[in-house]
Amino acid sequence: MSSAPSRSNPDPIDDALTAAVAAVTARIVAVGAANPAVVVDGRSGAGKSSLARRLVSAWPGRGRVQLVALDDVYPGWDGLAAGVEYARETILLPHARGLLGVWERWDWDAGARAEAYAVDPSLPLVVEGAGILTPDIARLADVSVWVESPSASRRDRALARDGDTYRPHWQRWARQEDVHIDRHSPAERADLRVRVP
């Protein structure tokens, strides 16, 4: 009997994310920067966070990689555009200019900014979140990724993750994503497009 894992029941999501990490990693290597900035955009539940975490774990270089999730930045349920602009000003722009960036986490319960975090411009940076791939941010990113997934799959994953906290806000958030997509065409702007089942 073989000790190799059975592939009779492959996990298509795992396979898609593994392939995506390989493609993004190859792009990072091709850029050749010591401190590249990577942005990962996509609608809620598409797989951005999973891809970003795997990418950081498989980073093709030595040293620490900084990961910022926009879920920690958006100022509330109506804050997609404001959160993206805040990330541009406090995280991505300083990083691109070789300056220390400082951002404050959004405390969803208190409805206010909380503790501060520094972004070291000498280290690689991954920023993931819906809305992040705008024209201004595309110019600051060394690699940009759009993650897409079927609506039903996205909704199931997002609500399994966040449950009743997110359920009443699903449509409210989706409308903000629609505005971002209509205004900025992130899928067409991305260096890489990734599909997660």
Highlighted features:
single chain, about 200 residues, alpha/beta, Rossmann fold, five-stranded parallel sheet, 7 strands, about 45% helix, globular, disordered N terminus
Strand ordering within the main sheet: 2-5-1-6-7
Shape: globular
* The CATH C-level class name: Alpha Beta
**Could you please say which CATH topology applies here?**
Rossmann fold
Helix content: 40-55%
Q: Average pLDDT value? A: 93
Report the portion of residues in β strands: 15-25%
| Overall tally of domains | 1
Report how far the terminal alpha carbons are from each other.
32 Å
Beta strands, count: 7
Q: Give the second-level CATH assignment, the architecture.
A: 3-Layer(aba) Sandwich
Biggest pleated sheet: 5 strands, parallel
Pattern of helices and strands: HEHEHEEEHEHHHE
The structural class is: alpha/beta
Q: How large is the count of helical segments?
A: 7
